[in-house]
Specification:
By secondary structure, this protein is mostly helical. It has eleven helices and no strands.
Length: 219
Amino acid sequence: MNAVVEQEKPTLLKAIELVLADPKNIKQETISLLEKIKVAHPSKSNKEVRKIASEKVISNYSYYAAFSGGATALTGVIPGLGTAIATFGGATADAALSMKFQIEMTMALATVYGHDILLEEEKRLCLIVAGLGAISEAAKEGGKSVGSKAFVKLVQENLKGATLQAVKEIFKRVGITFSRKALEKAIPFGIGVVIGFSANKGLTWYVGTKARDFFSIEE
Protein backbone atom coordinates (compact mmCIF):
# COMPACT_ATOMS: atom_id res chain seq x y z
CA MET A 1 0.00 0.00 0.00
CA ASN A 2 2.80 2.44 0.91
CA ALA A 3 4.54 1.67 -2.39
CA VAL A 4 1.35 2.58 -4.28
CA VAL A 5 0.99 5.83 -2.35
CA GLU A 6 4.66 6.63 -3.03
CA GLN A 7 4.21 6.01 -6.76
CA GLU A 8 1.22 8.34 -6.87
CA LYS A 9 3.25 11.23 -5.46
CA PRO A 10 4.36 13.89 -7.96
CA THR A 11 8.09 13.78 -8.73
CA LEU A 12 8.63 17.25 -7.26
CA LEU A 13 7.05 16.22 -3.95
CA LYS A 14 9.30 13.14 -3.72
CA ALA A 15 12.35 15.34 -4.35
CA ILE A 16 11.21 17.89 -1.75
CA GLU A 17 10.88 15.15 0.88
CA LEU A 18 14.55 14.23 0.33
CA VAL A 19 15.82 17.75 1.09
CA LEU A 20 13.32 18.95 3.70
CA ALA A 21 14.70 19.63 7.18
CA ASP A 22 13.44 17.57 10.14
CA PRO A 23 10.24 19.19 11.49
CA LYS A 24 11.56 18.51 15.03
CA ASN A 25 14.48 20.86 14.39
CA ILE A 26 12.24 23.51 12.81
CA LYS A 27 9.90 23.33 15.81
CA GLN A 28 12.75 23.61 18.35
CA GLU A 29 14.38 26.55 16.56
CA THR A 30 11.07 28.40 16.30
CA ILE A 31 10.18 27.87 19.96
CA SER A 32 13.67 29.11 20.86
CA LEU A 33 13.09 32.23 18.71
CA LEU A 34 9.77 32.91 20.46
CA GLU A 35 11.41 32.60 23.88
CA LYS A 36 14.21 35.01 22.90
CA ILE A 37 11.68 37.58 21.70
CA LYS A 38 9.66 37.25 24.92
CA VAL A 39 12.81 37.86 26.98
CA ALA A 40 13.85 40.82 24.81
CA HIS A 41 10.35 42.36 24.87
CA PRO A 42 8.80 41.48 28.25
CA SER A 43 6.04 44.07 27.89
CA LYS A 44 4.79 42.72 24.54
CA SER A 45 1.59 40.69 24.36
CA ASN A 46 1.62 37.15 22.95
CA LYS A 47 0.03 38.47 19.77
CA GLU A 48 2.79 41.08 19.38
CA VAL A 49 5.49 38.48 20.09
CA ARG A 50 4.04 36.22 17.38
CA LYS A 51 4.01 39.12 14.92
CA ILE A 52 7.69 39.93 15.58
CA ALA A 53 8.60 36.23 15.31
CA SER A 54 6.68 35.78 12.05
CA GLU A 55 8.44 38.79 10.50
CA LYS A 56 11.81 37.37 11.54
CA VAL A 57 10.96 33.93 10.12
CA ILE A 58 9.85 35.38 6.76
CA SER A 59 12.94 37.60 6.56
CA ASN A 60 15.34 34.75 7.40
CA TYR A 61 13.91 32.25 4.93
CA SER A 62 13.65 34.85 2.15
CA TYR A 63 17.37 35.46 2.67
CA TYR A 64 18.15 31.71 2.59
CA ALA A 65 16.17 31.26 -0.63
CA ALA A 66 17.79 34.28 -2.29
CA PHE A 67 21.28 32.89 -1.74
CA SER A 68 20.51 29.23 -2.44
CA GLY A 69 21.33 29.43 -6.17
CA GLY A 70 21.45 26.19 -8.13
CA ALA A 71 21.20 22.81 -6.44
CA THR A 72 24.55 21.46 -7.63
CA ALA A 73 26.43 24.14 -5.68
CA LEU A 74 24.87 22.98 -2.38
CA THR A 75 25.15 19.19 -2.60
CA GLY A 76 27.64 19.05 0.28
CA VAL A 77 25.63 21.48 2.42
CA ILE A 78 22.03 20.23 2.30
CA PRO A 79 21.42 16.58 3.29
CA GLY A 80 19.56 14.58 0.64
CA LEU A 81 20.28 17.02 -2.18
CA GLY A 82 22.85 14.79 -3.88
CA THR A 83 20.35 11.92 -3.84
CA ALA A 84 17.64 14.21 -5.28
CA ILE A 85 19.90 15.27 -8.15
CA ALA A 86 20.97 11.67 -8.85
CA THR A 87 17.39 10.40 -8.71
CA PHE A 88 15.38 13.16 -10.37
CA GLY A 89 17.89 15.34 -12.23
CA GLY A 90 19.15 18.89 -11.72
CA ALA A 91 16.00 20.74 -12.80
CA THR A 92 13.70 18.91 -10.37
CA ALA A 93 16.28 19.15 -7.58
CA ASP A 94 16.54 22.92 -8.10
CA ALA A 95 12.75 23.29 -7.95
CA ALA A 96 12.71 21.14 -4.79
CA LEU A 97 15.41 23.33 -3.26
CA SER A 98 13.36 26.46 -3.92
CA MET A 99 10.25 24.92 -2.35
CA LYS A 100 12.26 23.51 0.58
CA PHE A 101 12.72 26.96 2.08
CA GLN A 102 9.10 27.95 1.54
CA ILE A 103 7.77 24.79 3.18
CA GLU A 104 10.20 25.02 6.13
CA MET A 105 9.25 28.69 6.56
CA THR A 106 5.55 27.73 6.54
CA MET A 107 6.26 25.08 9.20
CA ALA A 108 8.05 27.67 11.32
CA LEU A 109 5.13 30.10 10.94
CA ALA A 110 2.68 27.34 11.87
CA THR A 111 4.73 26.74 15.03
CA VAL A 112 4.69 30.47 15.84
CA TYR A 113 0.89 30.34 15.78
CA GLY A 114 0.57 27.24 17.95
CA HIS A 115 0.38 24.35 15.46
CA ASP A 116 2.22 21.11 16.21
CA ILE A 117 4.09 20.39 12.97
CA LEU A 118 5.10 16.93 14.22
CA LEU A 119 1.53 15.76 13.53
CA GLU A 120 0.95 14.37 10.02
CA GLU A 121 -2.15 16.48 9.34
CA GLU A 122 -0.29 19.65 10.36
CA LYS A 123 2.59 18.77 8.02
CA ARG A 124 0.11 18.34 5.19
CA LEU A 125 -1.48 21.68 6.09
CA CYS A 126 1.94 23.34 5.75
CA LEU A 127 2.51 21.68 2.36
CA ILE A 128 -0.90 22.87 1.17
CA VAL A 129 -0.31 26.45 2.37
CA ALA A 130 3.20 26.65 0.86
CA GLY A 131 2.15 25.00 -2.42
CA LEU A 132 -0.89 27.23 -2.88
CA GLY A 133 1.26 30.23 -2.00
CA ALA A 134 3.69 29.40 -4.81
CA ILE A 135 0.82 28.89 -7.28
CA SER A 136 -0.81 32.16 -6.16
CA GLU A 137 2.45 34.03 -6.67
CA ALA A 138 2.58 32.73 -10.25
CA ALA A 139 -1.00 33.96 -10.75
CA LYS A 140 0.03 37.34 -9.33
CA GLU A 141 2.74 37.62 -11.97
CA GLY A 142 0.03 37.15 -14.58
CA GLY A 143 -1.77 40.19 -13.21
CA LYS A 144 -4.29 38.33 -11.02
CA SER A 145 -3.26 39.16 -7.47
CA VAL A 146 -4.72 36.86 -4.81
CA GLY A 147 -5.99 38.77 -1.77
CA SER A 148 -5.51 37.59 1.81
CA LYS A 149 -9.15 36.56 2.32
CA ALA A 150 -9.25 34.76 -1.02
CA PHE A 151 -6.07 32.87 -0.15
CA VAL A 152 -7.39 31.80 3.27
CA LYS A 153 -10.59 30.58 1.58
CA LEU A 154 -8.53 28.70 -1.04
CA VAL A 155 -6.59 26.86 1.69
CA GLN A 156 -9.77 26.05 3.61
CA GLU A 157 -11.36 24.60 0.46
CA ASN A 158 -8.38 22.25 0.05
CA LEU A 159 -8.69 21.09 3.68
CA LYS A 160 -12.28 19.89 3.27
CA GLY A 161 -11.52 16.58 1.57
CA ALA A 162 -8.62 14.14 1.71
CA THR A 163 -5.60 16.30 2.52
CA LEU A 164 -3.04 13.82 1.15
CA GLN A 165 -4.76 13.91 -2.25
CA ALA A 166 -4.91 17.72 -2.05
CA VAL A 167 -1.15 17.84 -1.42
CA LYS A 168 -0.48 15.61 -4.45
CA GLU A 169 -2.68 17.69 -6.76
CA ILE A 170 -1.19 20.98 -5.56
CA PHE A 171 2.41 19.83 -6.07
CA LYS A 172 1.62 18.55 -9.56
CA ARG A 173 0.56 22.13 -10.32
CA VAL A 174 3.63 23.59 -8.58
CA GLY A 175 5.86 21.33 -10.71
CA ILE A 176 4.15 22.54 -13.88
CA THR A 177 4.54 26.16 -12.72
CA PHE A 178 8.30 25.78 -12.14
CA SER A 179 8.74 23.99 -15.48
CA ARG A 180 6.92 26.81 -17.25
CA LYS A 181 9.16 29.39 -15.57
CA ALA A 182 12.23 27.52 -16.81
CA LEU A 183 10.84 27.31 -20.36
CA GLU A 184 9.97 31.02 -20.38
CA LYS A 185 13.61 31.77 -19.63
CA ALA A 186 14.67 29.37 -22.43
CA ILE A 187 17.12 27.63 -20.07
CA PRO A 188 16.42 23.91 -19.65
CA PHE A 189 18.09 23.33 -16.27
CA GLY A 190 18.99 25.11 -13.07
CA ILE A 191 15.61 26.49 -12.02
CA GLY A 192 17.06 27.93 -8.81
CA VAL A 193 19.41 30.00 -10.95
CA VAL A 194 16.72 30.70 -13.55
CA ILE A 195 14.34 32.15 -11.00
CA GLY A 196 17.24 34.26 -9.77
CA PHE A 197 18.24 36.10 -6.62
CA SER A 198 15.47 38.73 -6.37
CA ALA A 199 12.68 36.48 -7.69
CA ASN A 200 13.59 33.65 -5.28
CA LYS A 201 13.55 36.11 -2.41
CA GLY A 202 10.30 37.67 -3.62
CA LEU A 203 8.59 34.30 -4.06
CA THR A 204 9.55 33.20 -0.55
CA TRP A 205 8.49 36.50 0.99
CA TYR A 206 5.13 36.30 -0.81
CA VAL A 207 4.49 32.72 0.33
CA GLY A 208 5.48 33.74 3.87
CA THR A 209 3.03 36.64 4.00
CA LYS A 210 0.22 34.44 2.70
CA ALA A 211 1.07 31.71 5.23
CA ARG A 212 1.07 34.29 8.03
CA ASP A 213 -2.30 35.59 6.81
CA PHE A 214 -3.70 32.07 7.08
CA PHE A 215 -2.26 31.13 10.48
CA SER A 216 -2.92 34.51 12.13
CA ILE A 217 -6.66 34.48 11.41
CA GLU A 218 -7.04 32.00 14.24
CA GLU A 219 -5.78 34.49 16.82
